[in-house]
Design goal:
Structural class: alpha/beta
Number of strands: 12
Strand content: 15-25%
Order of helices and strands: HHHHEHEHEHEEHEHEHEHEHEHEE
């Protein structure tokens, strides 16, 4: 079967069949006629032939740091919700939190000529910036802000600032912070700086030194909670860069017979299911992860459709989540 034969059987033009397979506009009557012929004959267009003709692969490369992550899962749900309706297929690359792997996948996608790339970024080194300049297809970055590139990111600084302020307003005046690596500008550096500035602005400058650094796991949160107590002594509140770290911190405190939240209140960030099922539920921050994936794909499709070529930055807001309170204290930050 070929397009001409499909057109003859459906009683439409070859141009209508071509628009059908390329998700162009045709009337519902013609679309239904073509669909019936395709279904009856089992016809499938040749991907190789389409690629040679249009120089488009209809493939989008998506690079993520890991799959066992609530935030990455939500981002991917947003990405797929739009891509699945667009006629594009997804090629997923998982770097296992290795920045060198990100560089390898960027180069591989460039060589294999996907139509565009979505990079869910953690660490953006000088080498990343050099590599991005060599990539000939559009790239949209999710989770980090990078000047000169289309990117969708969160207001991590103000979210952490407001979370810290909330705990201080609850009367917790001996706080500590479990941070992510400072190489991760958003989750590491910006959230940590939000904590530091909040305690200083609230007249508790000495608390800015009560910081340890963990990796993005429950086990690391558990380990670093013990380290934080050894470093700072008596604490009545702990803020963590992620919900996973916070869950590990709660586990450590319970094993040490320290009552949570009566003696030490624990807060995370991310508003994951883990934050909800932890007993008691964690105070946390809701970031619009799924929305960031949706916006990133829409931005990429605009670039592929040549509806926009200039770099565009979108900063998403947040709100605080305190499930123990009747009224959820929330503050919306960022620019929608």
């Amino acid at each position: 079967m070929n397009i001409a034969e499909i057109a003859e059987l459906a009683g439409v033009s070859r141009a209508a069949v071509s628009r059908y397979f390329n998700h162009g506009y045709i009337s519902e009557e013609k679309r239904e006629a073509i669909r019936k012929v395709v279904e009856e004959t089992g016809y499938r267009p040749s991907v190789q032939a389409q690629t040679l003709r249009t120089r488009k692969t209809k493939m989008i490369g998506v690079i993520v740091p890991k799959v066992a992550s609530a935030s990455i899962g939500k981002i991917m749900e947003g990405v797929l919700s739009v891509l699945n309706e667009s006629g594009y297929q997804t090629v997923l690359a998982v770097t296992q939190n290795d920045p060198k792997k990100e560089l390898e996948y960027l180069a591989a996608f460039h060589e294999k000529q996907v139509d565009g790339i979505i990079l869910v970024a953690t660490v953006l080194t000088a080498e990343h910036k050099r590599t991005l300049k060599t990539v000939s297809v559009p790239v949209v970055i999710v989770g980090q802000q990078l000047a000169g590139y289309c990117c969708v990111f969160h207001d991590d600084y103000h979210a952490s600032y407001d979370l810290t302020k909330l705990l201080l307003e609850k009367g917790r005046r001996r706080l500590g912070y479990i941070s992510a690596t400072q190489q991760d500008k958003a989750v590491g550096a910006d959230r940590c700086q939000g904590y530091k500035d909040a305690v200083r602005d609230m007249g508790c400058e000495a608390l800015a030194k009560n910081i340890v650094v963990a990796t993005f796991t429950v086990a690391s949160g558990y380990e670093k909670m013990g380290e934080l107590l050894e470093k700072c002594g008596d604490l009545d509140g702990v803020i963590c860069a992620t919900d996973s770290m916070a869950a590990g911190a709660v586990q450590y405190l319970r094993e040490q017979k320290i009552k949570v939240p009566d003696q030490i209140i624990v807060a995370g960030q991310g508003d994951s299911e883990m934050a909800e099922v932890t007993a008691p539920p964690l105070i946390t921050v809701h970031y619009s992860y799924e929305n960031s994936g949706e916006i990133a794909v829409q931005m990429l499709l605009e670039l592929l459709g040549e509806k926009g070529s200039a770099s565009k930055e979108v900063k998403l807001g947040y709100y605080l989540v305190d499930r123990k309170e009747e009224a959820v204290p929330s503050q919306q930050g960022g620019v929608p």
